[in-house]
Design goal:
The protein is an alpha+beta fold. The protein has 5 helices and 7 strands; from the N terminus they run H-E-E-E-E-H-E-E-H-E-H-H. It is globular.
Amino acid sequence: MNILPTIRDSDLYEGVIDVDPNGFRTRTAARAIVLDDLNQVALLKVGNHNYYKLPGGGIEDGEDVKQALARELLEEIGCKAQVIGEVGEIVQYLGEKQLKQTSYCYLAKQIGEKAEPNFTDEELANGFEIRWAKNIDEAIVLLENSKTDDYSGTSIVKRDLTLLIAAKKLI
């Protein structure tokens, strides 16, 4: 899988000195840029923190990356999708959370019907909702225009914008 740039706190905030990542806990995740039949791109709007993100999430014990991706897409955007390509692997070092997160991102095509998501209580509390951007360019603009002051959201937007720009070269 293509290795994309690593994201550190110093990439997000001017003047921040990165924390030594030794001892950070680790998390792996699966994400996708999902296109429907009209080439609309599935995004999640995080309304309470004013940003957009790609669907996906953590890989649970006993799952491989693609199993986790399938589960996350059903939960977050209410549909199945077929992987049609690899976008890349991206690592985030989140000093405030003492976390190293590695995300594996794919390009996928929505299959079957769109249904309602099954958001967690935490996602509902954060104001999650599905938004289908009309194309990848609109998805990029939505992320570029996200104005969050949330620490996690700032890193997520940087990560997912990097992934969308990489995916645009594949479409």
